[in-house]
Design brief:
The chain has one domain: Gcn5-related N-acetyltransferase (GNAT) (Aminopeptidase), CATH 3.40.630. About 25% of the residues lie in helices and about 20% in strands. It contains two helices and four strands. The protein has helices at about 20-30, 50, and strands at about 1-5, 35-40, 55, 60-65. Strand 1 (about 1-5), helix 1 (about 20-30) and strand 2 form a beta-alpha-beta unit. The longest helix has 13 residues, at about 20-30. The protein is globular and about 35 Å long.
Length: about 70
């Protein structure tokens, strides 16, 4: 299966707190562990996605394995 994630952003004043990563991980977890997450992003975010484990494709970023996350915090 495949999930397309679009238009996700964290306000600049809240960046650097892990919010973006948690939102992406939660989306992937909810879609299912066998789902590939496909993310199209702004060029300015190109250095962020490898930092959280996404792999660059010619036209998108891909997360194949859903991480186990704790969304209670």
């Amino acid at each position: 299966y495949c999930t397309y994630l679009s238009d996700l952003a964290v306000d600049v004043s809240f960046q650097g707190r892990g919010i973006g990563r948690r939102l992406i991980d939660f989306t992937h977890e909810q879609a299912g562990k066998k789902t590939t997450l496909i993310l199209l992003a702004a060029p300015a975010a190109a250095t962020y996605y490898p930092h959280i484990g996404l792999t660059r494709h010619d036209s998108c970023w891909i997360m194949k394995d859903s991480p186990s996350i704790d969304v209670s915090t």
